[in-house]
Automatic annotation (TrEMBL):
<dbReference type="InterPro" id="IPR005164">
    <property type="entry name" value="Allantoicase"/>
</dbReference>
<dbReference type="GO" id="GO:0004037">
    <property type="term" value="F:allantoicase activity"/>
</dbReference>
<dbReference type="InterPro" id="IPR015908">
    <property type="entry name" value="Allantoicase_dom"/>
</dbReference>
<feature type="domain" description="Allantoicase">
    <location>
        <begin position="15"/>
        <end position="165"/>
    </location>
</feature>
<protein>
    <recommendedName>
        <fullName>Probable allantoicase</fullName>
        <ecNumber>3.5.3.4</ecNumber>
    </recommendedName>
</protein>
<comment type="pathway">
    <text>Nitrogen metabolism; (S)-allantoin degradation; (S)-ureidoglycolate from allantoate (aminidohydrolase route): step 1/1.</text>
</comment>
<feature type="region of interest" description="Disordered">
    <location>
        <begin position="322"/>
        <end position="343"/>
    </location>
</feature>
<keyword id="KW-0378">Hydrolase</keyword>
<keyword id="KW-0659">Purine metabolism</keyword>
<comment type="similarity">
    <text>Belongs to the allantoicase family.</text>
</comment>
<dbReference type="Pfam" id="PF03561">
    <property type="entry name" value="Allantoicase"/>
</dbReference>
<dbReference type="InterPro" id="IPR008979">
    <property type="entry name" value="Galactose-bd-like_sf"/>
</dbReference>
<feature type="domain" description="Allantoicase">
    <location>
        <begin position="186"/>
        <end position="315"/>
    </location>
</feature>
């Protein structure tokens, strides 16, 4: 799988934030984690010069580099980083590097700057202007923060940190019933039939959608099939309530949906039979005595758009133990996902 199909753990709509930058003379650091692509207006000038939709530092007249620190909205294992220099053509940094840190609690800026546990994710590497510069990351360790360094100065439009969230099992225990499909709780899309209009990762984002573009929408089918998405839960769970939200999909919501769950032994079980859906509606379905499952598959009939998929439940003892083991090791599962074996 291309790592860019994984969720962006640093995006603002997942809870990411740029907590520090040593310089933002021309453009604000917060732009780095804006979910939408950068935009550009050639005629837009402000009191500090040309307005850029990104982070831009002043021209250095001494040795050194500029840097920004991003707190991930969903701490986890980083599989790849994109340093997007969109619209920066004569003022992009020639080289960048990226580091990661696993910090406990809510560290201050001073604590982050003084921390000695930063690990190299992307070595100092050349980048191009007006380009999505993609770097695969081979460090299989959980991080909570990333530090982008630009050498020596310049502008970056967006920083994308794609990976798999690894939640704290103690937090899930304290919360009780939680959404085990949510990105922040370790849910992840492992297979999907169609991503024509938008990413299925949108289904697992926190909070309500703000428009139709913040959901998952497929192309119009011209055959007898249907579209579907498979999601690995944060761990083996018993799901009590499923939520299928078609908010903002007024004339292109699916007509019907089914839900199936994958058991630990690999078999599939029906969680929700074929059920009619309404447009622009937050549907909630109690699942009764559902068996423990590790994955869920949503089938929409025949096609259309869905805003959110929530699977509210609790980890089983087995799921809690496996998540705890991964948490202590700071790594995500090494076993393959089951997308190709979907029913």
């Amino acid at each position: 799988m291309d790592f860019r199909q994984l969720p962006d753990l640093a995006a603002r709509n997942v809870g990411g934030a740029v907590v520090y930058a040593n310089d933002e003379a021309f453009a604000a650091k917060e732009n780095l984690v804006t979910p939408r692509p950068a935009v550009f207006d050639a005629a837009d000038f402000g009191h500090k010069g040309k307005v850029y939709d990104g982070w831009e530092t002043r021209r250095r007249r001494e040795q050194g580099h500029d840097e920004a620190i991003v707190r991930l909205g969903a701490p986890g294992v980083v599989r790849g980083v994109v340093v997007d220099t969109a619209f920066f053509t004569g003022n992009f940094p020639p080289e960048v590097s990226v580091e990661g840190l696993a910090a406990d609690g809510h560290p201050s800026i001073a604590e982050l700057l003084a921390a000695d546990g930063w690990t190299e994710l992307v070595p100092r590497s050349p980048v191009k202007g007006d380009t999505e510069n993609a770097f695969t990351v081979a460090v299989d360790r959980r991080v909570t923060h990333v530090r982008l360094r630009i050498h020596p100065d310049g502008g970056v439009a967006r920083l994308r940190v794609h990976g798999e969230a690894l939640p704290d099992p103690a937090l899930l225990d304290a919360l009780g019933t939680v959404d085990l499909a949510a990105i922040e709780n370790g849910g992840r899309v492992v297979a999907c039939s169609n991503i024509f209009y938008s990413s299925p990762n949108n289904l697992l984002l926190p909070g309500p959608p703000r428009n139709m573009g913040e959901g998952w929408e497929t192309a119009r089918r011209r055959d007898d099939g249907n579209d579907w998405v498979e999601v690995a839960l944060g761990g083996e769970s018993v799901i009590a309530v499923a939520e299928i939200d078609t908010t903002y999909f007024l004339h292109n919501a699916p007509g019907w949906a089914t839900l199936r769950g994958r058991k630990t032994d690999g078999g599939w079980v029906e969680l929700l039979p074929r059920t009619a859906l309404l447009p622009d509606t937050r549907h909630r379905f109690p699942l009764g005595a559902a068996p423990p499952t590790t994955h869920v598959r949503l089938d929409i009939h025949p096609d259309g758009g869905t805003a959110r998929l929530r699977m509210h439940g609790r980890l089983t003892d087995r799921g809690r133990a496996e998540l705890g083991q991964r948490w202590r090791a700071g790594v995500t599962p090494t076993t393959r996902d089951h997308g190709e074996d979907s029913p």
